[in-house]
Design goal:
Layout: H1 2-5, E1 11-16, E2 22-30, E3 39-46, H2 55-70, E4 75-81, H3 85-93, E5 97-108, E6 111-121
Parallel strand pairs: 3-4
Antiparallel strand pairs: 1-2, 2-3, 4-6, 5-6
Length: 122
């Protein structure tokens, strides 16, 4: 995490309740090479009890706005499980396009899970 704080093309966002409880996290890590500095890879995680409440959308909106303002990031990409319909809906709502599928990319609970590669270029 310290690396993201010292990089001008990376950011960490945290959704916190007034009680101090963390309910969501979004991270974007920009490329390290000159040819990939413009690409930010994101990951978003929302506490299970706060899913479908708008927290994920708020985090995604904020990370996209930050990326546009930083004037380095020109492309955002992510990987999402193919059966995660709520996340797919949010990403598509914000303009992400499915660019490919990684078959058997994850192994959870004794089974292989496919993931989609999605991207947003602006």
């Amino acid at each position: 995490m310290a690396e993201a704080h010292s990089s001008d093309n990376s950011v960490n966002l945290i959704a916190i309740l007034p009680t101090g409880e963390i309910i969501g996290i979004a991270e974007m890590h920009g490329g390290k090479l000159k040819a990939t500095r413009h690409v930010g890879t994101i990951g978003i995680n929302v506490s299970s009890e706060w899913r479908n409440s708008g927290v994920g959308s708020d985090l995604l909106r904020s990370i996209i706005e930050w990326a546009k303002l930083c004037d380095i990031i020109k492309r955002i990409e992510l990987e999402v499980m193919t059966d995660n319909q709520p996340a797919l809906h949010i990403y598509e709502k914000f303009g992400f396009k499915t660019e490919g599928c990684k078959h058997g990319a994850l192994y959870k609970e004794g089974r292989l899970i496919d993931t989609y590669l999605m991207g947003l270029t602006y």
